[in-house]
Amino acid sequence: MPGVTWTIKGRQFSHCKCAYGCPCQFNALPTKGYCTAVIGIEIDNGHHGETPLDGLRVAAVASFPGALHEGHGVATIVIDERANPAQREALLRILSGQDTEPGATIFQILSTVLEKVHDPVFAPIDFEVDVERRRARLVVADLIEARGEPILNPVTGAETRARIDLPQGFEYSIAEVGRGWAKTQGAIVLDMADSHAHFCHLHMTQSGVVH
Length: 211
Fold this sequence. Notes:
The strands form two sheets. Strands 1, 2, 3, 4, 5, 6, 7, 8, 9, 10, 13, 14, 15 and 16 form a 14-stranded mixed sheet that branches. This protein has a two-stranded antiparallel sheet with strand order 11-12. It contains two helices and 16 strands. It has helices at residues 85-95, 106-111; strands at residues 6-16, 35-48, 51-52, 57-64, 73-80, 114-117, 121-123, 126-130, 135-140, 144-149, 151-152, 159-160, 162-165, 174-184, 191-205, 208-209. A hairpin with a 3-residue loop joins strand 9 and strand 10 (144-149). The protein is 8% helix and 49% strand.
């Protein structure tokens, strides 16, 4: 069992290279045979031990040459520059899968398939996400520029709503499905357009997602 207890409640925007819906959500291979992704999280309230995490933001850029479970991934983690030293350490421990039961969260699982994690970036994170409206904007200067929008009906132009329900998921319980665009710079350069995005409420502890 982990020695430190933690909890985060918040909202997340995830955008990847896959077709709408993302086969990875269903234990299938990625659409193009490899995975690239950008993630933004706003923590509405949370803690790591005695360290409060309310109001902080994190972001990440990741790339895998094949399916995630095949490993060899690389990632860059961005921590809100407003975080004090204790909060920075707490967030890095959570995001790197430490103080977490094996297999309990997406962060812990990803930590087992990443071959390289670049030095963390501490920077302002401009992030807005509305889960129900399926809209998001994520900007980290000189690193990430991304946005998320609803899927549109190709005939009528109306917004299309679809959800993914994972009662035993290790990332979320329910996610709203949309589409996204992102360009990144730095150690991992990506250019993704009009591909899968999902928007979800997060509620995690060291033991996993609270369903």
